[in-house]
Every structure is written in C-alpha cells, then in structure tokens.
Amino acid sequence: MKNERQIIFFVDDNIANLTAGKAMLKDHYDVFPLASGSRLFEILEKVRPDLILLDIEMPEMNGYAAIKKLKADETTRDIPVIFLTTRNDSGSELEGLNLGAIDYIFKPFSPPLLLKRLENHLLARRQQIALKDYNDNLQRMVERRTQQVVELQNTILNTVTEMVEFRDNATGGHIERTQNYLTLLVDKLLQENIYREEISSWNLEFLIPSAQLHDVGKIAISDTILNKPGKLTSVEFEIMKQHAAIGETAIERIMKTTSENDFLNHAKIFAATHHEKWDGSGYPRNLKNYDIPLQGRLMAVADVYDALISARPYKEPLSPVEAEEVIIAERGKHFDPILVDLFRELTSQFALVAEYCQARPESDVLRKSA
C-alpha cells in the first residue's frame, strides 16, 4: 500500500515567502500556503495537517497568539508547530518553545536544512502516533483479557454455588436472594454514610459476588444431614455447623494459589462469620459485637431473613412481616443494632426481592434438573 503524502501548513503573511516555501517543499509534501492566522483556523476545520510551519510576525494574529489557540483546543493541540522568524535572540526562541513549538527556525533558512528538520520531526511524529496506537491496542487487549478472566471466574463461581444448591434441595434461590438483600443493605450504608471506614477499604466490585460462596462449606456435609426431612438432632446440628469453618478453610487454600485475593478475602469472611451473633452466642468462634467483621454482620441479617421466609422440610415459611418481627426482636442479640435499624427502613424492599425471586420457581427447577 502506497504511503499518503504528509500535509504541511505553511503560514506566513509574506506572499513571496509562501511561494518560495511551497516550491521548496512541494516535491516532498502536500503544502498548504496560508497568508494569515485566521486563514489557518479556517482550513483547520476541513484539513488536519501533520505539521505547521508558523511565522511569528504577522498582523492581526501573530504566531504566538496562533499557537496559544492551537494548544488550547483538544483537537489541534497535538499538531507539531515549528516557528519561522527573523528574531535571532534567545528570549524569543525560549518564548516560542515554552508555548509548545517543537523547533525554531530563523529566516532566511537553508532549503536542505529545512527539509532535514521537517523529515526528522515528522519521523518522530509518526513514531509517536505508532506508539500511541500500539499502547491503545495493548490496553484494549488487556481489557479484553481481563473481561475473559472475569467471565471465567464468574462461570466457575456460578458452577460452584449451583453445586451447593443442588445438594441442599431445601434452599433453592437462597444465594440469589441473599445477594440482593446484601445489595440493599450496603447501598443503604453508603447512602447514610455509616461504617464508612470499613467500607472504604472494600473493593465493592467484588463484595456482592463473593457472597455467593458463603455456604460453600456445605459441599462437605453429608446428604443425610443436609437434606434430612425434619429437624436436626443436636449431634447432627454440630456437624452442620462445621460448614462455616470448612468453607473458610477451602477458600484459604484457593488464596494460597493466587495473588488476586480481594474477591476471595471477602468470600472467606462471609463463609467464616455469617453464623456469628452480636451477643457472642454464634459459631464457629463465638465472636461478639464489632469483633465480627461487617461482612459477616451483614450476611447474618440477609441469611436469617431468607431462612425465615423460606419453606424447609421441618417448618413452614413465615410471611415477610413475621420475618421482619423476628429480625427486629433479635436487635442487639443476634444482629448488629445499627444494621437492624437500617433493615427496618428496607423491609418493603426485602419483601419485594423475596416475592420477585420466589415468583420464578421454573428457574430453580431447571437448575436442579440440569
């Protein structure tokens, strides 16, 4: 493919200089002779040059005013400008360079010298553009690769969480609903500027998706216990309680194999602490009050609310209003009082999430029969 000729704007109020300049450059470039600064900006609306040769001493708009206008416009600021002038003093040259000119050529100039300088500056300009294109392409490649990794991560995550739900037949849709409840609570915390210090350290992009793994430890629990059609015995319940620690350990093992741990760190905290209670009577570590990470305190509200409104082999579901009453009654006992107060402002939205998700039983049936 033949290379296109590069475009040079030659701006000078002296017609003789324009004629001589065009004759000098026309064999190498497409030259636009322009007799004023105002004419320069008229042509710029239609043609974009590769370089501008700009006389300084012109009436109406001199070269300094013209380059200031060029550099102030995002669409023209990157066009290289070389000043042409009879001012042979360092002060004038420094002023021109400070305004953004890439070179300063004194009149009368030698044709071979002018051509060589143009050649060098235009080569540098082509290399600059090529490097920018390369970096832009590289950035797009990185973004595409990152998106592929995120999609793969989400696919694996969804597969693991569906495996948990496949085995726990009583909790279909639980993961989806708890994610929605968490989103409501976190948005409310941000809106009310509550627990700002803790939240400021979180990568919120990873927080909600990571909550899908809060029950991953159930994979290690026997089907006999997990799907028992009745209330668990005390011994069975002790075994069931192990899922929190098992989930934490499983996620820790994954964390040792990767340096990208923001997502997994949230997941580990959700898995380990979502059954801790504000008064210290929870499990697996009997953590109390603010010793329970905020992620665990949030999940406790979402998890229990969903358990209350859901049918289980050993109980009928409560209505949203009845579930709300249980959560509120456990303020300061099972749950963080501040989060319960926020929950009270969100009860109608929690009920809407439950109604919407439970109105799609076909999706659960399809997942469980896949």
Tell me what you see in this structure:
This protein has helices at residues 15-25, 37-44, 63-72, 90-98, 111-167, 174-192, 196-200, 204-210, 223-226, 234-255, 262-273, 294-309, 320-329, 337-358, 361-369, and strands at 7-11, 30-34, 51-55, 81-85, 103-106. It has 370 residues and is of the alpha/beta class. It folds into 2 domains: 7-138, Response regulator (Rossmann fold, 3-Layer(aba) Sandwich); 168-369, Hypothetical protein af1432 (Orthogonal Bundle), CATH 1.10.3210. The protein has a 5-stranded parallel beta sheet with strand order 2-1-3-4-5, sandwiched between helices.
Task: State the main characteristics.
Rossmann fold, alpha/beta, 15 helices, 5-stranded parallel β-sheet, disordered C terminus, 60% helix, 370 residues, 5 strands, Hypothetical protein af1432
* Approximate helicity band: 55-70%
- H/E series: EHEHEHEHEHHHHHHHHHHH
On the 0-100 scale, what is the average pLDDT? Answer: 86
Q: State the shape.
A: elongated
Residue stretches low in confidence (pLDDT < 50, at least 5 long) are 361-370
Do you know the CATH topology of the largest domain?
A: Hypothetical protein af1432
Number of helices: 15
Instruction: Describe the largest sheet.
Output: 5 strands, parallel
Main sheet: which strands, in order across?
Answer: 2-1-3-4-5
Q: What's the CATH class label of the largest domain?
A: Mainly Alpha
